[in-house]
Amino acid sequence: MPFMREELQKYFYALTSVARALRSIGVDFELIGSMVLPVGYGMYWDVHDVDLFVIGESPFMNPDKFEELAGRNDWDVGTSAFGNMYMEVLAGDSMIRVDLMENALDVYIPSKLLEDSLAAAVGEDKIKVMRVEGLIVLKAREATDEAEEFLEELNERLGDSSIRLDKKKILSFINEYPSDERKSLRHRIEMAGIYLD
Q1: What pTM does this model have?
Q2: Staple partner for 59: which of 47, 85, 149, 192, CB 3.0–4.6 Å?
Q3: Where are the domains of the chain?
């Protein structure tokens, strides 16, 4: 699908650039967010940034390490409204934002969602990618209008794709969250048309 590659090429470039840089300093990570769909599943999606979940390191607690890495690569660094660090990578004529997420502040991703991942090839790079079932639960947990629209569109697009959801896995991932969140997570997913029975 050349259209998909051309449309998303700058995001693939930013992903592989930051992936190589993080690996060069021994930092592990996993791709989360909407880029999961084109990278892990070959599904075109209109992405706006790249979300990496940093494993075993904390950009929040150790910002100097990540700021130095960005400086060596001539990338800008900032902090989002949610408190996570991001890097801005120049890709062609576009600045692509790569968020470095971690379990801090309002972000919480149970280890089971990260451990049950895919390995995807992006050029010569292998990238750990969250499963679509984990992405669905993460979007439900966001509880925003944008996340709701994402889930509704994903449900529609899945009907026209070869991707088959493992609904037991979605339920298992929901059960990794505190018991007082589980009912609302399932409700948001099912309101988008992804029925789990």
Answers
A1: 0.94
A2: 85
A3: 1-130, 131-197
> Whole-angstrom Cα distance, residue 86 to residue 80?
7
- The mean pLDDT value of the chain amounts to 93
Note the Cα 13 to chain centre separation in Å. Answer: 16
- Average pLDDT on 26-47 reads 95
Tokens found for residue 24 = 């060069």
**pLDDT tens readout for residues 110-138:** 999 999 999 999 988 999 999 999 999 99
Residue 118 structure tokens:
């895919």
57 touches 65 (CB < 8 A): yes
Phi, psi of 140 (to 5 degrees): -65, -35
| Fold (CATH) for 1-130 | Beta Polymerase; domain 2 (3.30.460)
pLDDT of residue 164: 92
> What is the DSSP secondary structure assignment for residue 103, as one 8-state letter?
S
